[in-house]
Amino acid sequence: METKIERRFLSSKLECREAKDGKPAQLAGLAVPFDSPSLLLDEDGAQFVELIAADAFDGTLDSGAEVMMLLSHEWDKPLARRSSGRLELTREADGIHFAATPPETTLAQDLIKDIAAGNIQGMSFGFSAAEDEWFERDGKLTRRVLKGILYEISPVVNPAYPDTAIASRSLKDFRKRERAETSRENFMRLARLRLLKRKYNINKG
Q1: Do 159 and 120 touch, CB atoms closer than 8 A?
Q2: Distance CA 29, CA 73 (A)
Q3: Are strands 68-71 and 74-81 parallel, antiparallel or unpaired?
Q4: Are 8 and 85 in contact (CB under 8 A)?
Q5: Which residues contact 127 (CB under 8 A, 6 or more apart)?
Q6: Cα(120)–Cα(172) distance, rounded to whole angstroms?
Q7: Which of 18, 34, 28, 10 shows the shortest CA–CA distance to 88?
């Protein structure tokens, strides 16, 4: 079964640490924010915001699972990977932070120059959600991702609006369960009403 990867963009300050004292240049910043409302997402006219729970990607972090750093989500443009020791992920209070040591390739070095020049100012992350919940907050429909797998993080030049098709399917399932629960409550309410009427008629007789 093909894994469906969702991608989310965040405007995040990227830090470019220059090479010095024999140490190579590094990129660092916030990759995944915790419990921070996303931009307003829209799918088929349904608008919602999204949050990532603080322990949503604990499975990925604690297991040492592979996570890639790519350029603009392109798998044929790798910049660093966790298994090589060139990508470090750290869980902090506000989210998952990264420190990456890109290779001495033209692609990576051009990226470092673009970030230093301020041409690239955003990050995005690719993940799959295994468990989520929906609720209302401040009048907005909100999705919180509770458990999932983090696959990759990417500096992005021109972030596209997030692909919300997978979240939309989760929302539709939530709406379906909500309607089923409402139908069940209505059925039980009518059943209780019939019993009361029957009891009333018997007592009256």
Answers
A1: no
A2: 17
A3: antiparallel
A4: no
A5: 5, 6, 7, 8, 57, 145, 148, 149, 150, 151
A6: 35
A7: 28
The percent helix, strand, coil of the chain (3-state, each to 5) is 30, 40, 30
Per-residue pLDDT tens, the chain, 205 aa: give them.
566 788 888 777 788 887 777 778 889 999 999 998 887 877 667 788 889 999 999 999 999 999 999 998 999 999 999 999 999 999 999 999 999 999 989 999 899 888 888 888 788 899 999 999 999 888 888 999 999 999 999 998 765 445 434 445 556 666 676 666 665 566 566 666 666 666 656 554 4
Q: What is the DSSP code string of 86-135?
A: SEEEEEETTEEEEEE---SSHHHHHHHHHHHTTS--EEEEEEEEEEEEEE
Q: Extract the tokens encoding 89.
A: 């992920």
State the Cα–Cα distance between residues 106 and 13, nearest whole angstrom: 23
Whole-number Å distance between alpha carbons of 8 and 50: 10
Nearest-CA neighbor of 125 among 195, 72, 188, 161? Answer: 72
